Amino acid sequence: MYPAPIEEYVRPGTVDEAIAALAKYPEGDAFFVAGGQSIMQAIKSRLLRPRCIVDLQGVSGLKGITADSNGVRIGAMTRYREIAEAESLNGAYQAMRDAADRVGDRQVRNRGTIGGSLCWNYVAACMPPVTMSLGAEMELIGAGGASRSVAANDFLLGPLETAREENEILLSINMPAAPANAGSAYKKWGLVTDALPVIGVCAYVELDGSGACTSARVAIGGLGDGPAHSGAAAAALVGNKGNDADAISAALDAAANETETQGDLWADPAYRKQLIRSLGTEVVTTAFQRAAS
Amino acid sequence: MSNQTVTITINGEAYEESVPQRMLLVDFIRDKAALTGTHVGCTYEGVCGACTVHLDGEAVKSCLMLAVQADGHELTTVEGLAQGGELTQLQKSFNEKHALQCGYCTPGILMNMTEFLKDNPKPTEEEVRRGLVGNLCRCTGYQHIVEAVLDAADKQGG
Ligand SMILES: Cc1cc2nc3c(=O)[nH]c(=O)nc-3n(C[C@H](O)[C@H](O)[C@H](O)COP(=O)(O)OP(=O)(O)OC[C@H]3O[C@@H](n4cnc5c(N)ncnc54)[C@H](O)[C@@H]3O)c2cc1C
Ligand code: FES
Ligand code: FES
Question: Which end of chain A is more exposed for a tag (fewer CB within 10 A), N or C?
Fold first, then answer.
């Protein structure tokens, strides 16, 4: 299938130039393209008919991961491929690697970016629940160079909706310096290997010196209304240890009960709840192990 | 509608062409460079992998890019694998292990697996199968493809 006619293609070198290039067109007529692994589907099917494409591949400063005592910064244009290989994320933020390593296929991971996934916010996407569970902040920059930071929870709205303004660029995904004794994990289930998640669950836990959980966040993707936290699961995990299988499965039962699941071609509501229980139990257990090691 | 002039190097040869911005990279390769080994197997979804080429050495789906995005970049297509008429080991293994029937998926699989074996010279069968997820084959059932990739890894002595 062929895209509708496109009038202009630009490959700016800086964030300012990219924002200016987009601003030349009325809202909805010009689009940023990162890895193109989502937006090109929409352009080819003519769901979107952009007059102008602003390619972010040439914009400097948007790629790469830095992790040190000041925190972890993942540039928006960092590809799944690089995230999957980033050992600096091990432990507290290892869920990012779990997710990136299993997105789609090799070719998609060679092009697709974390920023593109978050700005698209497809219901069956991996990075939205992962960034929510890890408590990530999105750094955005708009016209005039003003930047702002938005928590993943507030950035990711309903399906295909975010808090990003039309001409804002997502610069990076930021997390605080990894606390000691913190661990995370992500796992999804889809119809075939590495497919879009029917359900994906991400867990993050912090432990005290005795190995008991002091705080937890569990986020679920693949839901009809967009990714959601399970407050009940998080609350039920606090005070418990990673070897307490009963406590963990009670927490995931609470998550499955609390979460409204939809039925569709791929799974009915009850099956989705079962996926929340089984994937959730696995990722919470793994997160505890990673936090302890 | 306007056109834009691009220079895209494919298999070492520079193609300078004026193209509409909306032209997909796969159509540039097939229609402008007349290299028809790169195939198209799906409509807009980008799920079949038949169009896989190397962009600056990495396997990507050329139906999910515009030709203008490849301006100034280097591509390798299936026609560029063999050097001086000598097939690569992976190509020879595909032949010997009967890894193709109709052959429609083959160019994309060769491009993906060529890069895969560079990243992972000694893969397990499980790793090969996971590496193939982005390429659909409607004929073979994959068994012989997996055997061919493992055979190539073996003979390349990775
Ligand atoms: C075959 C296939 C399988 C897939 N499987 C999975 C899967 O298992 N799990 C999963 O989560 N996803 C999957 N995806 C989707 C994939 O993750 C996409 O790469 C991702 O959703 C989009 O990232 P991108 O860099 O390609 O963004 P693009 O498609 O280029 O852009 C997406 C949107 O974000 C905007 N945008 C991009 N970057 C920025 C930025 N820095 N600032 C502001 N706006 C920006 C664009 O304007 C566009 O609206 C799959 C895709 C394919 C084709
Ligand atoms: S033609 Fe199917 S993935 Fe490109
Ligand atoms: S050999 Fe026919 S599609 Fe693979």
Answer: C
